[in-house]
Amino acid sequence: MKILVRNLSRDTIEHDVRKLFLDYGRVTECTLVLDKETGTSKGFAFVTMPNVEEAKVAIKELNLTMFAGNKIRVKFAGH
């Protein structure tokens, strides 16, 4: 299941996002979206978790929680 994580701190790195979701299960992909001009984070990422039940728990538990100083929004991103 692909998950969208929004409102990330601009200082957050991909490793931090992956680590956050690993507490809920296996992560097969984690992509922090970067600005092509500056190479800095655009403040959102996509995380893929193959187990749908683990992904649903991660979404429920992490949505609207504080992470690296920001209240993040986590939701199903589609296929």
UniProtKB/TrEMBL annotation:
Any idea where the RRM domain is?
1-79
The scientific name of the source species is Vibrio hangzhouensis
Show the Pfam families listed in the entry. RRM_1
Task: Name the chain's protein.
Answer: RNA recognition motif. (A.k.a. RRM, RBD, or RNP domain)
Task: List the SUPFAM superfamilies.
Answer: RNA-binding domain, RBD
| One term of GO molecular function | RNA binding
Database matches in Gene3D superfamilies: 3.30.70.330
